[in-house]
Amino acid sequence: MGCDCESCIAKTLLSVFNFVFFVLGSIVLGVGIWLVADKSSFIALLKMVESDQLEHFTQPAVIEQLAYFLIAIGAIMFFLSFLGYCGAIRESQCLLTTYGLFLIVILILEVTACGLAAAYKESAKTETKNYLQTTISKYYSSNDRNQSDAVTLMWNYLMSEMHCCGVDDYRDFNLSDKWNESKGSRVIPEACCMQTTLFDLLDKNCPYSPSDSNSYYKKGCYNALIDWIMYNRNLVIIVAIGVGLVQLLAIFLSFCLCKSIEKYRGMRL
Question: Is the pTM of this model over 0.85?
Fold first, then answer.
């Protein structure tokens, strides 16, 4: 297609942008498939790095759940970027239109979710807390190597970093059958305790006898997360606006290029 300056810029930007995401999506998808097919080699590779903290990330259940997550994210990135890149390079109106429509649907879903959360603030708060409590009651287990999974690891990391315990407080863990079966004489998980470094307890007796001086067992993670978001709200808003603008730009460029292709083909006819 002999193109004018605007359509050439649109084609170049779409090609470069989607090529980058195509490569990233391929890498993420490839790593996910590798973990599903041969997680033992990945675990052996990580064990070559001398770090006590990495042991928590090399458990088979964690690797398996991480693999499926990477496959899902990688597949979405691969599919969308493939449509955008091939559509721009091949100047295909069909591919570009499909790419633009998918981005519009994703953007509408994002805006709708934000709008509903703002309009029904209390309901959103209740549903979010219920969901978080469900992840604890259904999936949270001990730190034992044979029982820990991705959900447990996520909660442990969150509680260690945010200095909190459970959704509302430590009593949320009493609803977890897996935790109750494996906790022994522990009252709270180790991640609820004060730590010198990640997963290294300040007081080794803390899980069995928690107090305000050695743990955060009365501080819920939901409020801690809300406090973190409010403290970093400017950054959160900037990131959200940035993501939205990138999506809008990609939509605009894809339909502009479609229009240029249609105009050029009409002139040839």
Answer: no
